[in-house]
Specification:
CATH architecture of the largest domain: 3-Layer(aba) Sandwich
Radius of gyration: 24 Å
Number of domains: 2
Helix content: 10-25%
Shape: elongated
Largest sheet: 6 strands, mixed
Structural class: alpha+beta
CATH superfamily of the largest domain: P-loop containing nucleotide triphosphate hydrolases
Strand content: 25-35%
CATH topology of the largest domain: Rossmann fold
Number of strands: 21
Distance between the termini: 54 Å
């Protein structure tokens, strides 16, 4: 298991920095996901770590060894690309054995290692098939087997699950979990799919325009995003413009914010400039509760059901709050009351689920995610 440190990496193409001062550390044997939209710099960063590109600045350490000047084949890295990189003329076994052949390993060792790796990935029965005769998950396992056959100390996954459908992705995640559990390989994965990242990552790195926006455990980033970009990237949320009414005045660190829904109490907020400061409130739809009784100290406001969307395990309730502001509420199907259009509700939320983000976003300036409810102060 290998510790990997990226320190101030920069890569420019012309005058544009595709990777801009990126620094973070990979825990030995852990899995870190880099999440960002298209054009965020993910593939460039993956190629820098793998040795397929040279950084313009910064350093890469594998344990205590500086490697940014070393070629890819000397870094001990296995990589699975987005397009998987399978050649139509080679069989599964030939694909898996190719890195060993390139490394001039003895024939007997090649045969043994290929057989072991095919068995571990459950594709030994497919050894003589070519890519056109494989399903999408089987092609992914072939590419993964090729990356793992040399027993790398670092595995890089550059969005290899992107082309799979939902069911295939679930299957592929289980394959990756099994490979990692058995090998203990340090893993650096890149994706634009927040569900994939949050389901698999021990550490989540959110990147945009080549720069790191936030790093931490996935649950922490989801519950306490650093800004509106992270809040929206990780899932549906209710966004409201507001102004700070007062700063924390008690040990719990509560702050009151004026919003279109009324004054809301938030908790655990730091770094606000003072009363009157413009802020953005983020509240996840599943954190909103619909009940006649409201616990003491919780925020509450009235709303009217506008429409109900069935989403399998949940119902999405689209409602209108004070001032006709849109509100999105997610309720588990098994716990959902019999909502109806036009129904009046009392909506409540605990202060710890009211997240205060710095600055004021402009309505209409962001590309909306499906399910977002964006509201403004008017």
């Amino acid at each position: 298991m290998r510790r990997v440190l990226l320190d101030g990496l920069v890569k420019r193409y012309g005058g544009v920095a595709a990777v801009d001062d990126v620094s973070f550390e990979l825990r030995p044997g852990g899995i870190t996901h880099v999440l960002g939209p298209s054009g965020a710099g993910k593939t460039t960063l993956a190629r820098l770590v793998a040795g397929l590109e040279r950084a313009d600045d910064g350093e890469i350490y594998f344990d205590d060894r500086m490697v940014q000047a070393q070629p890819a084949h000397r870094r001990g890295v296995g990589m699975v690309f987005e397009d998987l990189g399978l050649w139509p003329g080679l069989t599964v076994a030939e694909h898996v054995g190719f890195p060993l052949w390139m490394g001039r390993r003895p024939r007997a060792e090649r045969r043994r290692r290929v057989a072991e790796t095919l068995s571990a990935l459950r594709i030994d029965s497919l050894a003589n098939r070519r890519p056109e005769h494989l399903s999408a998950p089987q092609r992914l396992r072939t590419a993964l087997a090729r990356a793992m056959v040399t027993q790398p100390e670092l595995l890089i996954l550059d969005s290899p699950l992107r082309t799979l459908d939902r069911r295939e992705r679930e299957e592929a995640r289980e394959d990756l979990r099994q490979v990692r559990a058995e090998s203990g390989v340090t893993t650096l994965a890149f994706t634009d799919d927040p569900d994939e990242a949050m389901a698999m990552a021990e550490v989540l790195v959110v990147i945009d325009l080549g720069r790191i926006v936030q790093i931490g455990p996935a649950a922490e980033l989801y519950g306490r995003p650093a800004d509106v970009f992270v809040a929206r990237l990780l899932g549906p949320t209710n966004l409201l413009q507001g102004q700070v009414d007062n700063l924390p005045g008690d040990p719990r660190g509560e702050v009151i914010v004026r919003t279109p829904l009324g004054r809301l109490i938030a908790q655990g907020t730091t770094g606000l400039s003072g009363p009157g400061a413009p802020v953005t409130i983020s509240v996840r739809p599943e954190c909103l509760t619909v009940a006649a009784s409201v616990p003491a100290g919780w925020n509450r406001f009235p709303a009217t059901v506008e429409r109900i969307v069935f989403r399998g395990e949940i119902r999405q309730v689209h409602a209108r709050g004070p001032g006709d502001w849109p509100i999105l509420i997610s309720v588990l199907q098994g716990q959902a009351p019999a909502f109806r259009e036009g129904q009046s509700l009392t909506v409540s939320v605990a202060p710890e689920h009211v997240v205060v983000l710095p600055g004021k976003f402009a309505l209409g300036s962001l590309q909306p995610r499906s399910g977002d409810a964006e509201t403004g102060a008017g």
